[in-house]
Structure formats: C-alpha cells, structure tokens
Specification:
Blueprint lengths: L1 E10 L2 E11 L4 E5 L6 H8 L7 E6 L2 E2 L5 H6 L2 E4 L11 H7 L6 H14 L1 H5 L10 H13 L5 E5 L7 H16 L3 E6 L2 H7 L2 E6 L2 E7 H5 L2 H7 L3
C-alpha cells in the first residue's frame, strides 16, 4: 500500500533522512520507533507532502506521491495526525471535526460524523465546547477524529500518546487498534515503543535517519538491543 525507497530529506542543507526504506501492507499497523531526532517526524512529513524529498520515492497504492501537493494526498485517502495535535483551539469540537471533511458533501459528513462519535462518544458530549478547553486526552481524540472525518484508508499518527497521563496512554492505543479493525491501515510514530510494538504487525527502528532494524512487533519486543535502548529493560 505504501512503499518508501531510498528516501533522503531534510531542512535546507541539513539532511535528516539518509536512504530510508520501508513497506506498509494494507490492513496492517506499522510502528516507527526511535529516539528524538532519529527522523521519524521528517519521514511522516515527507510522506504527507509537507516536505519534498531530495532523493528517493514514495509510492502510495502504486502512485508516486512524493511529487504531489498535500491536499491531493489527503484526497486519495492518506491522512496524518500531526505531533502536537494542531487543533483550531478557538473553534468548537464540532467545527474542528467539520474541518476534516471540508471537501465532502453534507450527507457524507453527517454519516462520517456519526461513525466518529461512535468511536469517541466523549466528543459528542462536548461538540459545542472550544477545542482549547479540552483535556489533553480529549484533544488527542479530537485530532484523531478530525483526521477520520476525511475517511482515510491509511492513517498516520505522529506521537499520539505525547503529553498524556499514563492512565490515558493505554486508552489511546486501544483506540488505534480499534480504528485498524474498522479497516484503516495505520502508521504509528511513537517514542512509547513498548505500547507501539505491542499493537503493531510490523515495526521499523530509526537511528540517525536510517532504518537499522525491522521485524514483527513480537520480534522487536524480544530483541535485546531494542529492549535495552527503547524499552528500558
């Protein structure tokens, strides 16, 4: 579904990615783990069209999307939830959700909204509340819900557990797995490697802009190097 080959990307003269390659099969949850500065977010931004690669290709459903604008990528069903949520804090929950479906007809918006509120009933209780007044966990739910309003086939989540209380982290990962069970392929960037690897079908380890290890979630959880460097074991 998604194929990244030999990706080089960065900021100005600073190259962050040095030949990243990975595969995402339809229906899978794929985790991308690594320390701060490893290149995880840069990989996501390049796939989303927010950055242009200096070298390499990004194929989505056979299409070379590394030359596309972000809007076109979203229209073809690849949607990212950015790190830090990036909500419209002064708008209501309902208005933020509507922004995710701005290119869809009203009937389709209503149908999708019903599905999103089924996943996140708490958002239904707070539709008229300003997004900036929500708790951290609720804001993360809203960020994911807004992305789901675009009806993605592939959803990319950048650090969904960042800044959340420990009791909420497990809830977020349960939600991610539930979204996947509804037929959405998921790419998950996470520093919380233990939770990410527990729910993923396949994982990739990034270090200094390079993929240094890959395998199933179970294989990486059992790897001594991963356990020492990322799981604190």
């Amino acid at each position: 579904m998604l194929e990244i080959d030999g990706l080089h990307a960065g900021y100005g003269d600073l190259e962050v990615l040095h030949g990243v390659s990975l595969r995402v099969s339809e229906g899978d949850v794929v985790a991308l783990i690594g320390a701060n500065g490893a290149g995880k977010t840069t990989t996501m931004r390049t796939v989303s069209g927010l950055m242009r690669p200096k070298k390499g290709t990004v194929l989505y459903e056979g299409n070379p999307i590394h030359t596309w604008r972000p809007r076109r990528i979203v229209e073809h069903g690849l949607v990212q939830v950015p790190e830090g949520r990036k909500l419209f804090s002064g708008l209501s929950v309902a208005e933020n959700l509507a922004m995710g479906a701005y290119r869809r007809g009203r009937s389709e918006q209503a149908e999708t909204l019903s599905e999103v509120l089924e996943i996140f009933p708490r958002l239904g209780e707070r539709q008229n509340q300003e997004a900036g007044t929500l708790s951290g966990g609720e804001q993360q739910m809203l960020a994911i819900g807004r992305a789901l309003m675009a009806r993605p086939r592939l959803l990319m989540l950048d650090e969904p557990s960042l800044g959340l209380a420990p009791m909420l982290v497990a809830d977020i990962f349960d939600i991610v797995r539930g979204i996947n069970e509804r037929g959405v392929t998921v790419v998950l960037v996470e520093q919380n490697a233990a939770h990410a690897l527990q729910i993923c079908d396949r994982g990739y380890v990034l270090e200094s802009g390079r993929v240094v290890m890959e395998g199933t979630g179970e294989e990486l959880l059992g790897n001594d190097r991963v356990r020492s460097a990322y799981l604190g074991m």
